[in-house]
Amino acid sequence: MSNFWSIWITVLTLIVIAGCFFILRKMSQNNTGIKEGESMGHSFDGIEELNNPLPKWWSYMFYITIVFGLIYLAMYPGLGNYKGLFGWTSSNQSVRSMEESKAAVDSAKAENRLSQYDREVAHADEKYGPIFAAYLATPLEELVKNEEALKVGGRLFLQNCAQCHGSDARGSKGFPNLTDKAWLYGGELADIKTSLMNGRNGMMPPKGGLPIEDSELEGLAEYVVKLSGGEHDATLAAQGQGSFMKGCFACHGMDGTGNKFMGAPNLTDNAWLYGGSRGAIVESIKYGRAGVMPAWKDILGEEKVHVITAYVYSLSNK
């Protein structure tokens, strides 16, 4: 924060607190010339206003709040760039990457000035570390049968994965549904864990990087509809098959069943990541698609990824 904004926030905050104090003092004094308890000369609907001061307990509560606010602002950050007497921080606000975060934590440990977040993480690791270590030592084939582990995996999923895949894991446009059997990179336990650990970068270039003309897109989309078992125009689909054979098969296979090693979707099922309408298919072919899932090994660690893997697998394998 610049010095200007730091000073602005500090001065404005103190003015507001001082204003509250003086208004309270003013309202606690009788400057009306009318004795306490007597009529103010105002009445409405049979209700007469009397000159009564604020209740003492109410005034004292306001004074205590003002004093508490000043003490709090002196001890903790809140006035611009002022760090507070305790030097407390909620988290490492300046970091922009995992590497910077780790460096900031290591530096704070060396200087014994961990932020509250770092302290809470350290406490949680100390308390729950042995539990996750035991889960990691358990083969995934056994872990998927552990109901308690699946509950833990479900909570981790909600905290870290639901933002993209939804709280019900059914995904949305551009984010895979994890409850069906349509897996771009394979749905076995090892495949899922690899995806979570290392992340995925799926990319189809516009028109697959092939010499396909715009005039061919409608027929190509019709052929894709045919592959997925939808009602189609046979003549138009036959034309689209010729376009498909220009090179689409290199990723999606001659039969259109995809390639999990490349993340190329299976075009013969009815699972569509970006929509299965003819318009959506044409858009995908014409402009291409790019999807990224981050690697979680450095964010959560293998122990937690191991548990999430078991949970995700259980979603499509009841």
Automatic annotation (TrEMBL):
Signal peptide boundaries: none
UniProt-annotated location(s): Cell inner membrane
InterPro entries tied to this protein: CcoP_N, CcoP_N_sf, Cyt_c-like_dom, Cyt_c-like_dom_sf, Cyt_C_IC, Cyt_c_oxidase_cbb3_su3, Cytochrome_c_Oxidase_Subunit
Cofactor detail note: Binds 2 heme C groups per subunit.
Keyword Membrane: yes
GO cellular component: plasma membrane
Gene3D superfamilies: 6.10.280.130, Cytochrome c-like domain
Listed Pfam families: Cytochrome_CBB3, FixP_N
Annotated pathway: Energy metabolism; oxidative phosphorylation
Functional description taken from the UniProt entry: C-type cytochrome. Part of the cbb3-type cytochrome c oxidase complex.
NCBIfam families: ccoP
Annotated protein name in UniProt: Cbb3-type cytochrome c oxidase subunit
Biological source species: Shewanella holmiensis
